[in-house]
What does this fold into?
Amino acid sequence: MPTDKNDFPVIPDWILPLYGVGILDGLLGKMMSQIAKSYSNPKQGVYHLARFNGAMAQARASALRRYTFGTQAWSFPQGFRTTGQRGGMGSDTRFA
It folds into this structure.
């Protein structure tokens, strides 16, 4: 990720409203997993890291589906398209 002059990552504006809770879970999980800190809690750290991994899986699946929300995410592969004489694309069914 590109960074600004203060070394903060520059991310698009739509990322935080969509994945902000998942990013927060990852941050909390990493912080709570540290040993001998005032905020360490291994049980809660495992919980938040599991939620972060779930959010990452959901984000990965959304990216594979090209962020289609409310539409059909699957389309028939174009390699199996029919183009022969029995119909489909390119056929001429006019009769004389």
Notes: Residues 32 and 44 are 7 Å apart (CA to CA).
